[in-house]
Amino acid sequence: MVFVAARTSVAMVENKVVVHIFGEEYPITGVTNPSHISRVAEYVDSKMKEAAQASRVQARDKVAILASMSIASELLERSDRVGLAEQDAHSALDRVLAGLSEALADDTVGS
Fold it and tell me: Whole-angstrom Cα distance, residue 4 to residue 11?
């Protein structure tokens, strides 16, 4: 169950969403889209359930640490992949620019 309430101000809309994570209810307030807050909560809930099943640990704080480690690992792996993709894109762009510069230099020499 998700409860959403909105409070408006001059610059932004503040949303309150009640989410359920690992059997507990948490009211979350923020300017983020309520559906995004709910998606994040569902993801955290699923990671906590996975961590509890995989480790057989039941203490909520320890499960939260294991789930946080898992989420952080995913984030860092994706960040590394993005960094490599950026390096590849920069290398490709450098090659294109070098080829273009060479072609333009040849064109001006031949004129």
Answer: 19
State how far the Cα of 23 lies from the Cα of 54, in Å rounded to an integer. Answer: 18
| Amino acid at position 54, single letter | A
What are the residues facing 17 on neighbouring strands? 4, 28
Residue the block writes with tokens 């998606």: 39
Residue-range domain boundaries for the chain: 3-110
Q: Report whether 2 contacts 38 (CB < 8 A).
A: yes
Strand partners, 27: 18
Q: What is the pLDDT of residues 37-60, one digit of tens each?
A: 999 999 999 999 999 999 989 899
The type of residue at 18 is: V
